[in-house]
Q: What sequence folds into this?
Protein backbone atom coordinates (compact mmCIF):
# COMPACT_ATOMS: atom_id res chain seq x y z
CA UNK A 1 0.00 0.00 0.00
CA UNK A 2 1.59 3.31 -1.03
CA UNK A 3 1.76 6.35 1.19
CA UNK A 4 -0.19 8.56 -1.18
CA UNK A 5 -3.46 6.78 -0.34
CA UNK A 6 -3.98 8.33 3.06
CA UNK A 7 -6.01 11.08 4.69
CA UNK A 8 -4.39 13.51 7.12
CA UNK A 9 -7.46 14.01 9.23
CA UNK A 10 -8.89 10.52 9.56
CA UNK A 11 -7.70 7.48 11.51
CA UNK A 12 -9.46 4.54 13.02
CA UNK A 13 -9.65 2.73 16.31
CA UNK A 14 -11.77 -0.04 14.82
CA UNK A 15 -10.17 -3.45 15.44
CA UNK A 16 -10.22 -6.34 13.00
CA UNK A 17 -9.55 -9.98 13.64
CA UNK A 18 -5.82 -10.48 13.03
CA UNK A 19 -5.79 -14.25 13.17
CA UNK A 20 -5.39 -16.20 9.96
CA UNK A 21 -8.47 -16.90 7.96
CA UNK A 22 -9.65 -19.83 10.08
CA UNK A 23 -12.72 -17.86 11.07
CA UNK A 24 -12.85 -15.84 7.87
CA UNK A 25 -15.02 -16.74 4.99
CA UNK A 26 -13.75 -17.23 1.47
CA UNK A 27 -15.54 -14.04 0.51
CA UNK A 28 -13.60 -12.02 3.07
CA UNK A 29 -10.29 -13.53 1.99
CA UNK A 30 -10.97 -12.86 -1.69
CA UNK A 31 -12.03 -9.29 -0.93
CA UNK A 32 -8.83 -8.61 1.00
CA UNK A 33 -6.73 -10.08 -1.79
CA UNK A 34 -8.55 -8.02 -4.40
CA UNK A 35 -8.10 -4.83 -2.38
CA UNK A 36 -4.38 -5.42 -1.93
CA UNK A 37 -4.07 -6.21 -5.63
CA UNK A 38 -6.03 -3.10 -6.57
CA UNK A 39 -3.74 -0.76 -4.60
CA UNK A 40 -0.49 -2.33 -5.77
CA UNK A 41 1.86 -0.02 -7.68
CA UNK A 42 3.06 -0.92 -11.20
CA UNK A 43 6.50 -1.78 -9.79
CA UNK A 44 4.98 -4.10 -7.17
CA UNK A 45 2.86 -5.80 -9.80
CA UNK A 46 5.88 -6.21 -12.06
CA UNK A 47 7.94 -7.77 -9.25
CA UNK A 48 5.04 -10.10 -8.40
CA UNK A 49 4.21 -11.22 -11.95
CA UNK A 50 7.44 -10.54 -13.91
CA UNK A 51 5.45 -9.40 -16.92
CA UNK A 52 6.08 -6.39 -19.10
CA UNK A 53 3.94 -3.43 -17.92
CA UNK A 54 2.56 -2.79 -21.38
CA UNK A 55 -0.02 -0.33 -20.12
CA UNK A 56 2.72 1.81 -18.61
CA UNK A 57 4.54 1.62 -21.94
CA UNK A 58 1.32 2.76 -23.64
CA UNK A 59 1.17 5.87 -21.46
CA UNK A 60 4.84 6.68 -22.09
CA UNK A 61 4.32 6.26 -25.85
CA UNK A 62 1.24 8.49 -25.66
CA UNK A 63 3.18 11.27 -23.93
CA UNK A 64 5.94 11.13 -26.56
CA UNK A 65 3.47 11.20 -29.48
CA UNK A 66 1.26 13.92 -27.99
CA UNK A 67 4.29 16.12 -27.29
CA UNK A 68 5.62 15.58 -30.83
CA UNK A 69 2.23 16.47 -32.26
CA UNK A 70 2.07 19.60 -30.11
CA UNK A 71 5.52 20.79 -31.18
CA UNK A 72 4.70 20.30 -34.86
CA UNK A 73 1.42 22.16 -34.54
CA UNK A 74 3.06 24.90 -32.46
CA UNK A 75 5.64 25.60 -35.15
CA UNK A 76 2.87 25.86 -37.74
CA UNK A 77 0.74 28.04 -35.47
CA UNK A 78 3.65 30.41 -34.91
CA UNK A 79 3.93 30.95 -38.67
CA UNK A 80 0.21 31.71 -38.88
CA UNK A 81 0.30 34.13 -35.93
CA UNK A 82 3.38 35.95 -37.25
CA UNK A 83 1.82 36.23 -40.72
CA UNK A 84 -1.32 37.84 -39.32
CA UNK A 85 0.62 40.19 -37.05
CA UNK A 86 3.03 41.31 -39.78
CA UNK A 87 0.17 41.98 -42.17
CA UNK A 88 -1.62 44.03 -39.52
CA UNK A 89 1.51 46.18 -39.11
CA UNK A 90 1.86 46.51 -42.88
CA UNK A 91 -1.76 47.70 -43.24
CA UNK A 92 -1.22 50.42 -40.64
CA UNK A 93 1.79 51.74 -42.50
CA UNK A 94 0.01 51.47 -45.86
CA UNK A 95 -3.28 53.17 -45.01
CA UNK A 96 -2.61 55.47 -42.03
CA UNK A 97 -0.84 58.64 -43.02
CA UNK A 98 2.06 59.49 -40.74
CA UNK A 99 1.75 56.30 -38.72
CA UNK A 100 4.79 55.39 -36.65
CA UNK A 101 5.38 52.19 -34.68
CA UNK A 102 5.04 52.87 -30.95
CA UNK A 103 4.78 50.79 -27.82
CA UNK A 104 1.47 52.46 -26.99
CA UNK A 105 -1.95 51.37 -28.15
CA UNK A 106 -3.69 52.42 -31.32
CA UNK A 107 -5.59 55.18 -29.52
CA UNK A 108 -2.37 57.21 -29.22
CA UNK A 109 -2.57 58.01 -32.97
CA UNK A 110 -4.75 61.13 -33.04
CA UNK A 111 -5.56 64.11 -35.27
CA UNK A 112 -6.28 67.67 -34.19
CA UNK A 113 -7.35 69.63 -37.29
CA UNK A 114 -10.02 69.20 -39.95
CA UNK A 115 -7.42 69.35 -42.72
CA UNK A 116 -5.50 66.47 -41.11
CA UNK A 117 -8.69 64.38 -41.15
CA UNK A 118 -9.38 65.15 -44.81
CA UNK A 119 -5.77 64.41 -45.75
CA UNK A 120 -5.80 61.10 -43.85
CA UNK A 121 -9.07 59.96 -45.45
CA UNK A 122 -7.87 60.91 -48.92
CA UNK A 123 -4.53 59.17 -48.30
CA UNK A 124 -6.19 55.90 -47.21
CA UNK A 125 -8.50 55.87 -50.23
CA UNK A 126 -5.71 56.49 -52.75
CA UNK A 127 -3.51 53.87 -51.10
CA UNK A 128 -6.32 51.36 -51.48
CA UNK A 129 -6.89 52.23 -55.18
CA UNK A 130 -3.16 51.92 -55.99
CA UNK A 131 -2.50 48.95 -53.70
CA UNK A 132 -1.43 46.36 -56.28
CA UNK A 133 1.07 48.68 -57.94
CA UNK A 134 2.48 50.00 -54.66
CA UNK A 135 2.45 47.36 -51.88
CA UNK A 136 5.19 44.74 -51.55
CA UNK A 137 2.71 42.24 -50.10
CA UNK A 138 0.89 39.68 -52.24
CA UNK A 139 -2.56 41.32 -52.04
CA UNK A 140 -5.58 41.40 -54.31
CA UNK A 141 -9.02 42.99 -54.17
CA UNK A 142 -11.79 40.78 -52.87
CA UNK A 143 -15.00 40.70 -54.91
CA UNK A 144 -18.53 40.40 -53.54
CA UNK A 145 -21.48 38.36 -54.77
CA UNK A 146 -22.04 40.82 -57.64
CA UNK A 147 -18.40 40.47 -58.74
CA UNK A 148 -17.70 44.02 -57.56
CA UNK A 149 -14.84 45.33 -55.49
CA UNK A 150 -15.42 48.42 -53.44
CA UNK A 151 -14.26 50.48 -50.52
CA UNK A 152 -17.14 51.61 -48.34
CA UNK A 153 -17.10 54.85 -46.37
CA UNK A 154 -19.78 55.41 -43.74
CA UNK A 155 -20.27 58.40 -41.49
CA UNK A 156 -22.50 58.62 -38.44
CA UNK A 157 -23.81 62.03 -37.41
CA UNK A 158 -26.25 63.45 -34.93
CA UNK A 159 -29.45 64.57 -36.61
CA UNK A 160 -29.58 68.35 -36.82
CA UNK A 161 -32.71 70.56 -36.80
CA UNK A 162 -31.42 74.10 -36.23
CA UNK A 163 -28.12 75.37 -37.69
CA UNK A 164 -25.25 76.44 -35.46
CA UNK A 165 -25.68 80.01 -34.24
CA UNK A 166 -23.00 82.27 -32.75
CA UNK A 167 -24.38 82.25 -29.19
CA UNK A 168 -22.70 78.93 -28.28
CA UNK A 169 -25.90 76.96 -28.62
CA UNK A 170 -26.41 73.89 -30.75
CA UNK A 171 -29.75 72.20 -31.32
CA UNK A 172 -29.36 68.46 -31.91
CA UNK A 173 -31.25 65.29 -31.12
CA UNK A 174 -29.83 61.93 -29.98
CA UNK A 175 -31.01 60.36 -33.23
CA UNK A 176 -28.06 59.13 -35.31
CA UNK A 177 -28.15 59.09 -39.09
CA UNK A 178 -25.77 57.01 -41.20
CA UNK A 179 -24.66 57.80 -44.74
CA UNK A 180 -22.40 55.56 -46.85
CA UNK A 181 -20.44 55.86 -50.10
CA UNK A 182 -18.84 53.11 -52.21
CA UNK A 183 -15.67 53.71 -54.24
CA UNK A 184 -14.68 51.19 -56.94
CA UNK A 185 -11.04 50.75 -58.06
CA UNK A 186 -10.30 51.45 -61.71
CA UNK A 187 -7.91 49.86 -64.17
CA UNK A 188 -5.47 51.52 -64.61
CA UNK A 189 -5.61 53.06 -61.11
CA UNK A 190 -6.30 56.79 -60.96
CA UNK A 191 -5.78 59.29 -58.18
CA UNK A 192 -8.96 59.97 -56.29
CA UNK A 193 -9.84 63.51 -55.20
CA UNK A 194 -12.12 64.25 -52.28
CA UNK A 195 -13.50 67.38 -53.95
CA UNK A 196 -15.34 65.16 -56.45
CA UNK A 197 -17.96 64.21 -53.88
CA UNK A 198 -20.18 66.30 -51.59
CA UNK A 199 -20.25 63.31 -49.22
CA UNK A 200 -17.15 64.63 -47.49
CA UNK A 201 -18.79 67.68 -45.96
CA UNK A 202 -18.18 66.03 -42.60
CA UNK A 203 -19.68 68.71 -40.32
CA UNK A 204 -17.37 67.90 -37.43
CA UNK A 205 -19.60 69.53 -34.82
CA UNK A 206 -22.09 66.65 -35.24
CA UNK A 207 -19.81 63.91 -36.63
CA UNK A 208 -19.61 60.82 -34.40
CA UNK A 209 -17.67 58.20 -36.37
CA UNK A 210 -16.22 57.94 -39.87
CA UNK A 211 -15.37 54.40 -41.01
CA UNK A 212 -13.55 53.12 -44.08
CA UNK A 213 -13.96 49.37 -44.65
CA UNK A 214 -12.76 47.08 -47.41
CA UNK A 215 -11.55 43.51 -47.98
CA UNK A 216 -8.32 42.15 -49.42
CA UNK A 217 -7.11 38.67 -50.34
CA UNK A 218 -3.70 37.29 -49.45
CA UNK A 219 -1.78 34.01 -49.32
CA UNK A 220 0.75 32.69 -46.81
CA UNK A 221 3.47 30.85 -48.72
CA UNK A 222 5.91 30.38 -45.83
CA UNK A 223 4.13 27.20 -44.70
CA UNK A 224 5.49 25.48 -47.80
CA UNK A 225 8.92 25.53 -46.19
CA UNK A 226 7.47 23.26 -43.47
CA UNK A 227 6.03 20.93 -46.09
CA UNK A 228 2.49 22.12 -45.46
CA UNK A 229 -0.17 23.41 -47.81
CA UNK A 230 -0.27 27.23 -48.08
CA UNK A 231 -3.06 29.22 -46.41
CA UNK A 232 -5.30 31.66 -48.26
CA UNK A 233 -6.65 34.59 -46.26
CA UNK A 234 -9.35 37.21 -46.45
CA UNK A 235 -8.47 40.43 -44.64
CA UNK A 236 -11.33 42.59 -43.44
CA UNK A 237 -9.88 46.04 -42.77
CA UNK A 238 -11.72 48.83 -40.95
CA UNK A 239 -10.23 52.29 -40.40
CA UNK A 240 -12.13 54.26 -37.76
CA UNK A 241 -12.01 58.01 -37.16
CA UNK A 242 -13.62 58.34 -33.74
CA UNK A 243 -15.05 61.72 -32.76
CA UNK A 244 -17.66 60.45 -30.27
CA UNK A 245 -16.21 62.43 -27.35
CA UNK A 246 -16.00 65.75 -29.30
CA UNK A 247 -13.01 66.58 -27.12
CA UNK A 248 -10.89 68.30 -29.74
CA UNK A 249 -9.08 65.21 -30.97
CA UNK A 250 -10.07 62.44 -33.36
CA UNK A 251 -8.64 59.03 -32.58
CA UNK A 252 -7.66 56.79 -35.48
CA UNK A 253 -7.55 53.01 -35.25
CA UNK A 254 -7.13 50.28 -37.84
CA UNK A 255 -8.57 46.84 -37.21
CA UNK A 256 -7.49 43.93 -39.39
CA UNK A 257 -9.47 40.69 -39.18
CA UNK A 258 -7.75 37.77 -40.92
CA UNK A 259 -9.94 34.80 -41.85
CA UNK A 260 -8.43 31.73 -43.46
CA UNK A 261 -10.37 30.21 -46.32
CA UNK A 262 -9.95 27.40 -48.79
CA UNK A 263 -7.61 28.07 -51.70
CA UNK A 264 -9.12 27.06 -55.03
CA UNK A 265 -7.58 25.43 -58.11
CA UNK A 266 -4.63 23.72 -56.39
CA UNK A 267 -1.66 22.63 -58.47
CA UNK A 268 0.62 20.81 -56.02
CA UNK A 269 3.92 19.37 -57.23
CA UNK A 270 6.75 17.51 -55.55
CA UNK A 271 6.44 15.82 -52.15
CA UNK A 272 4.14 18.42 -50.56
CA UNK A 273 0.97 16.36 -50.93
CA UNK A 274 2.71 13.18 -49.70
CA UNK A 275 4.02 14.95 -46.57
CA UNK A 276 0.51 16.17 -45.83
CA UNK A 277 -0.70 12.57 -45.91
CA UNK A 278 2.08 11.54 -43.49
CA UNK A 279 0.99 14.24 -41.05
CA UNK A 280 -2.63 13.07 -41.21
CA UNK A 281 -1.55 9.45 -40.61
CA UNK A 282 0.48 10.49 -37.56
CA UNK A 283 -2.48 12.43 -36.14
CA UNK A 284 -4.67 9.36 -36.65
CA UNK A 285 -2.15 7.24 -34.74
CA UNK A 286 -2.22 9.74 -31.86
CA UNK A 287 -6.00 9.48 -31.78
CA UNK A 288 -5.80 5.67 -31.72
CA UNK A 289 -3.31 5.66 -28.81
CA UNK A 290 -5.46 8.13 -26.84
CA UNK A 291 -8.59 6.11 -27.57
CA UNK A 292 -6.92 2.98 -26.17
CA UNK A 293 -5.85 4.90 -23.07
CA UNK A 294 -9.35 6.31 -22.68
CA UNK A 295 -10.95 2.87 -22.85
CA UNK A 296 -8.50 1.39 -20.34
CA UNK A 297 -8.94 4.25 -17.86
CA UNK A 298 -12.72 4.12 -18.13
CA UNK A 299 -12.62 0.35 -17.64
CA UNK A 300 -10.44 0.72 -14.56
CA UNK A 301 -12.80 3.29 -13.02
CA UNK A 302 -15.80 1.04 -13.62
CA UNK A 303 -14.03 -1.93 -12.03
CA UNK A 304 -12.91 0.25 -9.11
CA UNK A 305 -16.53 1.24 -8.50
CA UNK A 306 -17.54 -2.42 -8.52
CA UNK A 307 -14.84 -3.25 -5.98
CA UNK A 308 -15.93 -0.24 -3.91
CA UNK A 309 -19.49 -1.56 -3.87
CA UNK A 310 -18.27 -5.00 -2.77
CA UNK A 311 -16.23 -3.50 0.05
CA UNK A 312 -18.92 -1.24 1.55
CA UNK A 313 -21.54 -4.00 1.27
CA UNK A 314 -19.32 -6.55 3.00
CA UNK A 315 -18.19 -4.05 5.63
CA UNK A 316 -21.75 -3.15 6.55
CA UNK A 317 -22.87 -6.77 6.56
CA UNK A 318 -19.92 -8.26 8.47
CA UNK A 319 -18.99 -5.47 10.91
CA UNK A 320 -22.25 -3.44 10.93
CA UNK A 321 -20.33 -0.23 10.28
CA UNK A 322 -20.46 2.34 7.51
CA UNK A 323 -17.34 3.23 5.59
CA UNK A 324 -15.92 6.72 6.24
CA UNK A 325 -15.67 9.36 3.52
CA UNK A 326 -11.91 9.06 3.03
CA UNK A 327 -12.25 5.31 2.37
CA UNK A 328 -14.93 6.04 -0.22
CA UNK A 329 -12.57 8.48 -1.96
CA UNK A 330 -9.74 5.92 -2.03
CA UNK A 331 -11.56 4.11 -4.84
CA UNK A 332 -11.92 7.28 -6.93
CA UNK A 333 -8.55 7.69 -8.60
CA UNK A 334 -8.12 11.32 -9.63
CA UNK A 335 -5.23 10.43 -11.92
CA UNK A 336 -7.57 8.36 -14.09
CA UNK A 337 -9.93 11.32 -14.38
CA UNK A 338 -7.00 13.53 -15.38
CA UNK A 339 -5.90 11.02 -18.04
CA UNK A 340 -9.46 10.71 -19.39
CA UNK A 341 -9.74 14.50 -19.67
CA UNK A 342 -6.35 14.61 -21.42
CA UNK A 343 -7.36 11.85 -23.86
CA UNK A 344 -10.68 13.50 -24.73
CA UNK A 345 -8.97 16.85 -25.38
CA UNK A 346 -6.24 15.21 -27.45
CA UNK A 347 -8.77 13.34 -29.60
CA UNK A 348 -10.81 16.52 -30.14
CA UNK A 349 -7.71 18.59 -30.86
CA UNK A 350 -6.34 15.94 -33.24
CA UNK A 351 -9.57 15.93 -35.24
CA UNK A 352 -9.44 19.72 -35.52
CA UNK A 353 -5.74 19.59 -36.45
CA UNK A 354 -6.44 17.10 -39.23
CA UNK A 355 -9.15 19.39 -40.58
CA UNK A 356 -6.78 22.36 -40.38
CA UNK A 357 -4.04 20.40 -42.17
CA UNK A 358 -6.53 19.55 -44.91
CA UNK A 359 -7.53 23.27 -44.99
CA UNK A 360 -11.15 22.53 -44.05
CA UNK A 361 -10.98 24.43 -40.74
CA UNK A 362 -9.19 27.58 -39.59
CA UNK A 363 -9.73 27.42 -35.82
CA UNK A 364 -6.05 27.52 -34.86
CA UNK A 365 -6.70 29.10 -31.46
CA UNK A 366 -9.33 26.57 -30.37
CA UNK A 367 -7.19 23.66 -31.55
CA UNK A 368 -4.13 24.99 -29.72
CA UNK A 369 -6.16 25.25 -26.49
CA UNK A 370 -7.23 21.60 -26.73
CA UNK A 371 -3.77 20.29 -27.62
CA UNK A 372 -1.95 22.50 -25.13
CA UNK A 373 -4.24 21.63 -22.21
CA UNK A 374 -4.16 17.92 -23.02
CA UNK A 375 -0.35 17.92 -23.12
CA UNK A 376 -0.29 19.78 -19.81
CA UNK A 377 -2.49 17.12 -18.21
CA UNK A 378 -0.40 14.33 -19.74
CA UNK A 379 2.85 15.69 -18.28
CA UNK A 380 1.25 16.44 -14.91
CA UNK A 381 0.19 12.80 -14.87
CA UNK A 382 3.86 11.81 -14.89
CA UNK A 383 4.01 13.02 -11.29
CA UNK A 384 1.79 10.06 -10.42
CA UNK A 385 4.61 7.61 -11.04
CA UNK A 386 6.97 9.55 -8.76
CA UNK A 387 4.32 9.31 -6.07
CA UNK A 388 5.05 5.60 -5.69
CA UNK A 389 8.48 6.46 -4.24
CA UNK A 390 8.57 7.93 -0.74
CA UNK A 391 11.42 10.34 -1.47
CA UNK A 392 9.62 11.90 -4.43
CA UNK A 393 5.97 11.99 -3.39
CA UNK A 394 6.23 14.82 -0.84
CA UNK A 395 4.86 17.32 -3.38
CA UNK A 396 1.77 15.24 -4.11
CA UNK A 397 1.05 14.52 -0.46
CA UNK A 398 1.55 18.17 0.55
CA UNK A 399 -0.74 19.45 -2.20
CA UNK A 400 -3.39 16.90 -1.32
CA UNK A 401 -3.26 17.64 2.39
CA UNK A 402 -3.08 21.45 2.08
CA UNK A 403 -5.69 21.89 -0.65
CA UNK A 404 -8.81 22.11 1.59
CA UNK A 405 -7.16 24.61 3.96
CA UNK A 406 -5.75 26.69 1.12
CA UNK A 407 -9.13 26.77 -0.63
CA UNK A 408 -10.91 28.08 2.49
CA UNK A 409 -8.14 30.62 3.05
CA UNK A 410 -8.32 31.89 -0.54
CA UNK A 411 -12.09 32.39 -0.24
CA UNK A 412 -11.57 34.71 2.73
CA UNK A 413 -8.62 36.56 1.18
CA UNK A 414 -10.52 36.85 -2.11
CA UNK A 415 -13.22 38.96 -0.47
CA UNK A 416 -10.63 41.50 0.68
CA UNK A 417 -8.98 41.40 -2.75
CA UNK A 418 -12.28 42.14 -4.52
CA UNK A 419 -12.90 45.07 -2.18
CA UNK A 420 -9.54 46.63 -3.03
CA UNK A 421 -10.13 45.93 -6.72
CA UNK A 422 -13.47 47.75 -6.91
CA UNK A 423 -12.22 50.62 -4.75
CA UNK A 424 -9.13 51.15 -6.88
CA UNK A 425 -11.12 51.04 -10.10
CA UNK A 426 -13.68 53.66 -9.12
CA UNK A 427 -11.26 56.07 -7.42
CA UNK A 428 -8.00 55.75 -9.35
CA UNK A 429 -9.37 54.58 -12.71
CA UNK A 430 -9.73 58.07 -14.27
CA UNK A 431 -6.17 59.04 -13.28
CA UNK A 432 -4.10 55.85 -13.56
CA UNK A 433 -3.70 53.66 -16.66
CA UNK A 434 -3.37 50.48 -14.58
CA UNK A 435 -6.75 51.06 -12.94
CA UNK A 436 -8.84 51.96 -16.00
CA UNK A 437 -10.55 48.55 -16.28
CA UNK A 438 -11.45 45.94 -13.69
CA UNK A 439 -9.32 43.34 -15.44
CA UNK A 440 -6.35 45.74 -15.43
CA UNK A 441 -6.88 46.46 -11.72
CA UNK A 442 -6.89 42.73 -10.89
CA UNK A 443 -3.66 42.23 -12.84
CA UNK A 444 -2.00 45.27 -11.25
CA UNK A 445 -2.87 44.19 -7.69
CA UNK A 446 -1.70 40.63 -8.38
CA UNK A 447 1.62 42.01 -9.64
CA UNK A 448 1.96 44.12 -6.49
CA UNK A 449 1.41 41.04 -4.32
CA UNK A 450 4.35 39.41 -6.11
CA UNK A 451 6.51 42.53 -5.72
CA UNK A 452 6.47 43.54 -9.40
CA UNK A 453 6.38 47.07 -10.80
CA UNK A 454 5.84 48.78 -7.46
CA UNK A 455 7.69 52.02 -8.12
CA UNK A 456 6.02 52.56 -11.51
CA UNK A 457 2.58 52.08 -9.93
CA UNK A 458 3.33 54.69 -7.26
CA UNK A 459 4.95 57.13 -9.70
CA UNK A 460 2.14 57.13 -12.26
CA UNK A 461 -0.37 58.74 -9.90
CA UNK A 462 -0.83 62.31 -11.11
CA UNK A 463 -0.56 64.98 -8.42
CA UNK A 464 -3.51 66.99 -9.71
CA UNK A 465 -5.29 66.70 -6.40
CA UNK A 466 -3.69 66.49 -2.97
CA UNK A 467 -6.64 64.48 -1.68
CA UNK A 468 -6.38 61.96 -4.53
CA UNK A 469 -2.61 61.68 -4.10
CA UNK A 470 -3.01 61.04 -0.36
CA UNK A 471 -5.73 58.44 -0.96
CA UNK A 472 -3.61 56.60 -3.53
CA UNK A 473 -0.72 56.32 -1.05
CA UNK A 474 -2.94 55.03 1.74
CA UNK A 475 -4.60 52.61 -0.69
CA UNK A 476 -1.35 51.17 -2.08
CA UNK A 477 0.55 51.05 1.22
CA UNK A 478 -2.32 49.31 3.02
CA UNK A 479 -2.83 46.77 0.22
CA UNK A 480 0.86 45.89 -0.06
CA UNK A 481 1.31 45.64 3.69
CA UNK A 482 -1.81 43.52 4.18
CA UNK A 483 -1.26 41.06 1.35
CA UNK A 484 2.51 40.70 1.36
CA UNK A 485 3.20 40.74 5.09
CA UNK A 486 0.04 39.01 6.31
CA UNK A 487 -1.98 37.18 3.65
CA UNK A 488 0.96 35.81 1.70
CA UNK A 489 2.81 34.83 4.87
CA UNK A 490 -0.23 32.97 6.21
CA UNK A 491 -0.65 31.26 2.85
CA UNK A 492 2.92 29.98 2.98
CA UNK A 493 2.48 28.98 6.64
CA UNK A 494 -0.48 26.74 5.76
CA UNK A 495 1.55 24.85 3.18
CA UNK A 496 4.61 24.67 5.46
CA UNK A 497 2.52 23.25 8.30
CA UNK A 498 1.14 20.55 6.01
CA UNK A 499 4.65 19.76 4.76
CA UNK A 500 5.92 19.32 8.32
CA UNK A 501 2.98 17.04 9.10
CA UNK A 502 3.79 14.92 6.05
CA UNK A 503 7.45 14.60 7.07
CA UNK A 504 6.38 13.51 10.57
CA UNK A 505 4.00 10.91 9.14
CA UNK A 506 6.73 9.54 6.88
CA UNK A 507 8.91 9.01 9.93
CA UNK A 508 6.30 7.68 12.38
CA UNK A 509 3.71 6.17 10.03
CA UNK A 510 0.55 7.48 8.40
CA UNK A 511 -2.89 7.42 10.05
CA UNK A 512 -4.75 4.21 9.35
CA UNK A 513 -8.35 4.20 8.17
CA UNK A 514 -10.72 1.25 8.32
CA UNK A 515 -9.82 0.30 4.76
CA UNK A 516 -6.09 0.21 5.48
CA UNK A 517 -6.56 -1.81 8.68
CA UNK A 518 -8.81 -4.27 6.89
CA UNK A 519 -6.23 -4.79 4.14
CA UNK A 520 -3.30 -5.24 6.54
CA UNK A 521 -5.05 -8.23 8.13
CA UNK A 522 -4.27 -10.08 4.92
CA UNK A 523 -0.91 -11.49 5.89
CA UNK A 524 -0.42 -13.56 2.77
CA UNK A 525 0.53 -12.49 -0.74
CA UNK A 526 -2.51 -12.06 -2.97
CA UNK A 527 -3.22 -15.01 -5.19
CA UNK A 528 -2.14 -13.50 -8.51
CA UNK A 529 -3.39 -16.52 -10.43
CA UNK A 530 -6.90 -15.29 -9.73
CA UNK A 531 -6.17 -12.08 -11.61
CA UNK A 532 -4.99 -13.65 -14.82
CA UNK A 533 -2.42 -12.37 -17.25
CA UNK A 534 -1.57 -8.81 -18.14
CA UNK A 535 -4.33 -8.76 -20.72
CA UNK A 536 -6.92 -9.71 -18.08
CA UNK A 537 -5.84 -7.11 -15.54
CA UNK A 538 -9.12 -5.64 -14.31
CA UNK A 539 -7.81 -4.01 -11.17
CA UNK A 540 -5.36 -1.33 -12.24
CA UNK A 541 -4.59 0.49 -15.45
CA UNK A 542 -0.81 0.42 -15.02
A:
Amino acid sequence: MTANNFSLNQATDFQFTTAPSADSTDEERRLREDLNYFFMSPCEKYRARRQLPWKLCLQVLKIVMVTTQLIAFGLSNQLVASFKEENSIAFKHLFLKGYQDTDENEGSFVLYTQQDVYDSVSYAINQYLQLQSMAVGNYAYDTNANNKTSLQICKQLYERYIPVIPNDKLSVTPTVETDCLNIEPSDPPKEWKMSNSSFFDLEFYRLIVLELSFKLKGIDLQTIRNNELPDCYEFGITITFNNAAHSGIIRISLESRAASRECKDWEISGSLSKNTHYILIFDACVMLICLMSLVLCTRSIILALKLHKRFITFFLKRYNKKVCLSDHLEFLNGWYILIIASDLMTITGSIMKMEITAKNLTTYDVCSIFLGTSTLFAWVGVVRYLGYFQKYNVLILTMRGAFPKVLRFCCCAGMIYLGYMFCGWIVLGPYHSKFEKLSAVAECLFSLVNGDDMFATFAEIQEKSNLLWLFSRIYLYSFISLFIYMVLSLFIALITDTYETIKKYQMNGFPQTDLHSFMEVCSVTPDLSRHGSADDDDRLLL
